[in-house]
Amino acid sequence: MAETLFDRIWNEHVVADLKDGFALLHVDRHLMHDGGGQNLLMLRKRGYQVRNPELTFATADHTISTTPGRADTNANGVRCLNDLRAETKDRNIRLFDIGDPGQGIVHVIGPEQGLSLPGALIVCGDSHTCTHGAMGALAFGIGATECLHVAATQTLVQRRPKTMRVNFAGIAPQGITAKDMILHVIGQLGTAGGSGYAVEYAGAAIRALEIEGRLTLCNLSIELGAKIGMIAPDDKTYAYLHGRPLAPKGALWDQALAYWRTLPTDAEAVFDREITLDVSAIAPQITWGTSPEHVIGIDERIPDPAGVADASRRRAMQAALAYMDLRAGEPIKGTKIDWVFIGSCTNSRLSDLRAAAGVVRGHKVAAHVHAWVVPGSETVKREAEAEGLDRIFLDAGFEWRDPGCSMCLAANGETVPRGQRSVSTSNRNFVGRQGPGARTHLASPAMAAAAALAGSIADVRQPGAK
Amino acid sequence: MEKFTRLCAIAVPPWRENVDTDALVRVERLFGAVPRNELGPYCFESWRYLPDRSENPDFILNQPPYREAQILLAGANFGCGSSREGAVWALAGQGIRCVIAPSFGDIFRNNCFQNGLLPVEMDFARIEAIARQVEADPAANRITVDLTQNAVIAPDGSRTAFRIPELRREALLEGLDEIELTLKREAQIAAFQARDAVRRPWIYQQ
Ligand code: SF4
After folding, report:
1. Residue A466: its pLDDT value, please?
2. Which strand (E) or helix (H) includes residue A124?
């Protein structure tokens, strides 16, 4: 029978059929961030062992400071890190600690270290685990109690989601990134559009994306409401993985590769829902409100809630405009900003930093703007420094920081101050996400860089935008 | 896990769709900063308090009798966003035992089931109709959620049936612990891994 990529991986991992659409699934990779120490302590309290520590990997990203040197990590961050260190050591779990080239945002290091493999089932106590789906893996975020379940049993009880395919027709115009493509999808389908589905992204525009772009795209699946987003592996995937520190080697590589090639969706496979979107005419995207679906092209005007029939949606839009201090009908371009954040598991990989540096090179950050670049991992940081990207950013007036989540979630005091406005390459523009009262506009790295130079929301395609 | 069978309680009308888990609990309270059973006062923190930390009188949960509510009527996609289970712990700490919404964030829904909180899916038109009855006299016009009957009973006595997977329903009714249940399947898990290590050895050897 014809199968989808999702079907194949799901079926391969069923340990027990629990009826009613539920299954007990085997977990191939359990990734932990610095909330992992808490979970392991809770596991200890309940008297459970970690069943397969060799399939469990940890790093520190959420609560550590990203100030160069990290001396200012706050007391809670320090405690999280110490707990993580002690618990992973005691239980023989590999920890990518600070300073280790493998340290970084968990969704950056998984693929980068060769942990996230096609056909693997990957979980982490973090919703952006969908990122790893770009490698052709079945990856999703879980809650803390589910993490305990995985640690204790190396399995998880899940209900089989429906399947959906999003086909990207056309070729993305020059300068349109994976971030713009997926924000556009979210704008079209809404943040609940993928709710209850495992989404596969397909089409020529997906094949044209490099792996890092695919990771960006799958990263925002959860903002589409889908906890699973995936892309069939292809030669780009295999070339990316080959030689990574924890990727299979030698004969195992050959065996794995032969298996991976059997994974992509069959031509005749049927999805529960299928959508086709044309990317050939989209403009660089930017959010205006407090949900990722509040997104428009840079050349558009801020939408008017008055024209929206659904009362609940209208109220949400009105509240968003008030929170963001914006007026319906005005152009988004030219809105004055105070901060720029280039980083997060969405857009902190080498290609992202190159794209931003390409805009920044030879220019200065506007005098009133605070601008940060936070590389996604220690490896990204070192590679960027080796090609001089840090100098480009520093010379322009950006801060060049240590790897971590930083201002994406505003832990450890790395916040946008109340009432101030930020263009961020992260994935959430929720109320208070970047700090109480902070106003966030999501965009691509090049767009964020252009905004930093202009001191206002700018169109990266226009000369003089910077 | 705390059992859920039948609940008759004050309900809060919906105020917006896409209520995300960052809104349910802020990051500063997570990662062990506040113990999980003390998160109630931080539920909806960004909306609930003014910048000077005093209560925002406009926020519905600060208004009597909604302060005592145990049921939330909500807009679509409730609990979207971050996987933080603290969102459910904060709701539970606030006294909420049931959320009725047209749809839920997938991870949030799973987290509810792990904590004895019942997510009920219902058509938004029906939710609004129930909300109008509630608003007429919130303290008196209570809603009953009966998991033994899979039904929500509105203040006017009208019933709306809801669907919930049997596995989840049973766990809530009995207060079952999923980890304990799965540990009983250890032989099955070991057999799976033995088979799988032959088929996909690269997963097990790095
Ligand atoms: S970078 Fe942001 S979204 Fe990604 S894992 Fe860290 S906090 Fe979560």
Report:
1. 45
2. strand A121-124
